[in-house]
Amino acid sequence: MLKKLLKYELKATARLFIPLYAALLGFAIINRIINPFSIIESSASASMKTIFAYLSLTAYFAIIVGIIAMTLIIMIQRFYKSLLGDEGYLMFTLPVSTSFHITSKLVVSLVWTLTSFLSTVISIFIIINEPGLISELPEAFKAFHQILGTFGMVLFSLSALLAICAYILMIYAAISLGHQFQKNKLIASFGMYCVLYFINQGIIAISLFTFGNFYFEWLVSSNGADMLIGSSNPEIFELNLVLIFYMIFTALLTAAYFLLTNHILKKRLNLE
Amino acid sequence: MSWKLQSDRPIYSQLMELIELKICSGFYPPGSKIPSVRELAQEASVNPNTMQRALSTLESDGLLISNRTSGRFVTNDESEILKLKKKLAEKNVAEFLQMMSKLGFTKDEIQNAISKSYIWEDNNGNNT
Amino acid sequence: METILKCSNLSKNFGNITALNNLDLDIPRGKIIGLLGPNASGKSTFLKICNELLTPTSGDIFISGYHPGIETKKIVSYLPERTYLNDWMKVSDIVDFFNDFYSNFNKEKAYDMLLKLKINPSDRLKTLSKGTKEKVQLILVMSRDAELYLLDEPIGGVDPAARDYILDTILSNYNENATIIISTHLISDIEKILDYIVFIKDGSVVFTKSVDEIREEHGKSVDSLFREVFKC
């Protein structure tokens, strides 16, 4: 059932994202062909050519901004409209658990967030006419690997993914909380987002203050930590400690937001 | 023949009357098979259980005969149908007479009105 | 007779407002039942609870032995009073959607009904009129071979011709083991297809009677009795 939900969620969103990505890459290619940077550099006065170059660049950046905004807006709109709007009558009467609904929205949002990031990076590679750039990628990767170690790389990617999940679920939780209000549900959702954000920051501050030192001391002093981290390089070791701490924290946060959203949608759902 | 139902009388008794009429008029000839409960209910746009009740009552009246395997049939016994026709005729005449007497007609006047009726003449195909 | 839906002391409050007040119901299989009551009498609230769209404040509800949840959603086919169709699918897409999620969905039946109501499967849901949307939803709901159909105001917004077709559809898809509950306040159009009627007012059952019982006892249609009982 989760597979089917994912399929329809992808279908519903792909028709919005694919044209955006196509436009982005299209404009990146156009910009590469007309090479606006060199036109602007080489001509002192404003000719038709330079105006065109500026326009083409502006359009490209506008699309990047548009993609960032759309990724966020579609994430919010898909959750709000298809679960808490009239479409909720269809979705919540399917023989599917509430947690599957949330998971399907989360996974698809995560996919589009990553794809938006990736397509923006690719478009930059297209525009920057630097043949050596791509061949240098493995070098960059190696350098990264040296700093973090294999375990650190995995940790880093995982925490990044978890951080995005926590962020998406925080938005879902805020919308679900906001929907508990009788009136002005959207404003209430935004208010709830602010509240969750402050609670989030508060918990980070408090836990860094109180548990932070204690946690590090414990890990440094225990022998098991070496095996856990899998590196004897002290610099990497410390960096990974921070990452582990951050990852556990984000994982807890992700779980908390998920459970909160699930509880509201299951027990306190009240469609218009 | 349509299934016109009034809204202030029980549905099942109205269904019975309509089926009786269909039997008398030969729409369902003696010995013929009538449609299933489901089909009839759908035709009349009524609840199948109500139709079932009407048919069962007609069955116990002896007008319909149910065969477990092949469905429901109109009785072959023409005397039953004749009895029904008489019953319905008496009922209609009684209603008619009641209405006429409400209008203040005497027995003679009623007979006179009947013999002069255009509908009567049309139905008999002569113009006297 | 075997029960398909049973609830006892079912209550639902929204803040200070009581929508359902100790509702008791025992609904057998194989019946067509009218759920009748004035506006805000608790009809929609009750149907939403049956579909787990609301959680009751107190009391119990069982559908085919289960609390509302995934198991009941498999066997309950619900038509809400809202249009829930999204704006990006075609009629054929939503048919596939139902076919995907409900194992008791009958695709041929759906296409057959679409054809009869002259609805083009390749039309976008967005472009359909309100009445056509309601028809599409009814087709989707009635194309399921469900054990319990819960229809909330199924004839509210459609024209009389379509209304007849809808009643026809309900009757022709009716099977002996399935129960249909129709919530409505437009009783005169549907009373002849009902087995019996549950009158509810202020969230409780006033009485439960068959249509013919009402006509025999009161010498009037359910519609006129309804007007009398719920006179303002």
Structure description:
The complex is a heterotrimer of chains A (272), B (128) and C (232). Chain A has 272 residues and is mainly alpha-helical. Chain A is 86% helix and 0% strand. Chain A contains 10 helices and no strands. Chain A has helices at 2-34, 36-42, 48-84, 88-91, 98-127, 132-135, 137-178, 185-221, 224-229, 234-267. In chain A, helix 3 runs antiparallel to helix 5, helix 5 (98-127) runs antiparallel to helix 7 (137-178) and helix 8 runs antiparallel to helix 10 (234-267). Chain A is globular. The relative contact order of chain A is 0.10. In chain B, 60% of the residues lie in helices and 8% in strands. Chain B is built from 6 helices and 3 strands; from the N terminus they run αβααββααα. Chain B has a 3-stranded antiparallel β-sheet with strand order 1-3-2, covered by helices on one side. Chain C has a single domain (3-229), classed as 3-Layer(aba) Sandwich (Rossmann fold), CATH 3.40.50. With 232 residues, chain C is α/β, with parallel strands linked by helices. Chains in contact: A-C, B-C.
CATH superfamily of the largest domain in chain B: Winged helix-like DNA-binding domain superfamily/Winged helix DNA-binding domain
Considering DSSP H and I runs of 4 or more, what fraction of the residues of chain A is helical? over 70%
Question: Distance N terminus to C terminus of chain B?
Answer: 32 Å
Strand order of the largest sheet of chain B: 1-3-2
Taking Cα atoms only, what radius of gyration of chain B do you get, to the nearest Å? 18 Å
Q: What is the total tally of β strands of chain B?
A: 3
Point out poorly predicted stretches of chain B: none
Classify the beta-strand content of chain A into a percent band. Answer: under 5%
Helices and strands of chain A: which structural class? mainly alpha
Note the total helix count of chain A.
10
Strand content of chain B: 5-15%
Give the strand tally of chain A.
0
* Rg calc of chain A: 23 Å
What general form of chain B does the structure show? elongated
Task: Please name the CATH architecture of the largest domain in chain B.
Answer: Orthogonal Bundle
| Uncertain spans of chain A | none
Helix-strand sequence of chain A: HHHHHHHHHH
- Average pLDDT over all residues of chain A: 85
Oligomerization status of the protein chains: heterotrimer
**Class computed from helices, strands and strand pairing of chain B:** mainly alpha
